[in-house]
TrEMBL record:
It comes from the Bacteria. It comes from Saccharopolyspora erythraea (strain ATCC 11635 / DSM 40517 / JCM 4748 / NBRC 13426 / NCIMB 8594 / NRRL 2338). GO terms for cellular component: cytoplasm. PANTHER family: ACETYLTRANSFERASE, RIBOSOMAL-PROTEIN-SERINE ACETYLTRANSFERASE. Gene3D superfamilies: 3.40.630.30. This is Acetyltransferase. GO terms for molecular function: protein N-terminal-serine acetyltransferase activity; protein-N-terminal-alanine acetyltransferase activity. Pfam families: Acetyltransf_3.
Amino acid sequence: MEHPREELATGPVTLRRWRADDRDPLHRAVNEAIHTLRPWLPWVANGYDLDAAEQFLAHAEAGWNSGEEFDYAVTLDGAIVGGVGLMRRIGPGGLEIGYWLHPDHTGQGIITRAVAALVDEAFALPYVDHLQIRHDRANTASSGIPRRLGFTEAEHRPKAPECPSQSGVEVVWEHRKPDALS
């Protein structure tokens, strides 16, 4: 099965496949951002130590090799400022996009650029005809990305809260490959 490219550049932002030597900068970036991530993301609910960073990097490597997930570091001038990924967990022809960003870099279009690059890269893969972004309804910051990139708000569905700020309603955004619409 064809994989996306391991590095994508879009203006000052570069997405690159995570590497084993990213452990320390990943750990630092997540811990500096933990106060903005913890309300929404269960993987930081109990903190984020070096073991967690190492386990994520091993998971990212295995996911890439199996073709199930394609996780990228989001870098700005070589420094890790966030993460994005494509995940094969929504059924045939589809990939889900996930993202997080260090709070010092919000409002600069970094994640919008990163996700736009992922959309283009995903739709270049012959087996992808649609993408989804999912987030909790209360996470209004996350809703701006799919809205700006032309995703359609497709569904609101119940989902048991996993974090303190979650409302229990998951918003699903969809984007269809342009040539898949006809």
